[in-house]
Automatic annotation (TrEMBL):
Residue positions of the active site: D12 (nucleophile), D14 (proton donor/acceptor)
Protein's UniProt name: Phosphomannomutase
Listed InterPro entries: HAD-like_sf, HAD-SF_hydro_IIB, HAD_sf, PMM, PMM_cap
Binding site residues for alpha-D-mannose 1-phosphate: R21, R125, R136, R143, S181, D183
Record organism: Bombyx mandarina
Any one GO CC term of the record: cytosol
Function: Involved in the synthesis of the GDP-mannose and dolichol-phosphate-mannose required for a number of critical mannosyl transfer reactions.
Amino acid sequence: MTSQKKVLYLFDVDGTLTKPRQKITEEFRRFILDEVKSKVDVGLVSGSDYMKISEQMGGEDVVSNFNYVFSENGLVHHKNGKKLSSESIVNHLGEQKLQEVINFAMGYMSNIKLPVKRGNFIEFRSSMLNICPVGRSCNQIERDQFSEYDSKHKVRQQFVEALQSKFKDSGLKFALGGQISIDVFPIGWDKTYCLNHIASENFVEIHFFGDKTDPGGNDHEIYNDSRTVGHRVSSPNDTEMQVKKCLNVE
């Protein structure tokens, strides 16, 4: 494959290019931005906001080297380091409905018993809410502890089911986000939204690499979309291996 064929490799961040909420390794960053980008266009799509993505990629000067950065599922759109567009969940839902979701989530979380709880349980982003039962202020050890507890007790899955039941006619989607949280956004504002921004770019192929591809995960829709070639990965090392296989490089 060569860049002349208009091919895009689109990457999730957490669990795909980096370990959850950690920085990409220098070696892997060089591989993506030097070797891979010399052959195809490269982009990022994440539920996180632009600043969090920048931190994980090693700074804004690094992330601006990606051809495309689709933060908040693509509702915020950067191309070659320049912000081109953004959407607002407040304008879409209205303040009343937004507060109903927030109030319900806060009440639900107040009754959850976990190994630890910290702070920043609901993070407002321009295009979504990010709800975190353990609290985004947790450290890495506490994050890993919650992830292990959640995999056994299905805390987030039960929370999603409660949200779906309460707001079944709201037009909202509730998806497991990353390692510790739940993303809340209008139906259609999943990661497939980013594909709207590149519909006129005439890519012959769009390859998507992500780890949360099962139903309920925030990579599920774009992984299964007919416009993409989906690659399910299990770690940054697995991503590198699969990319090398696609590009026929050692």
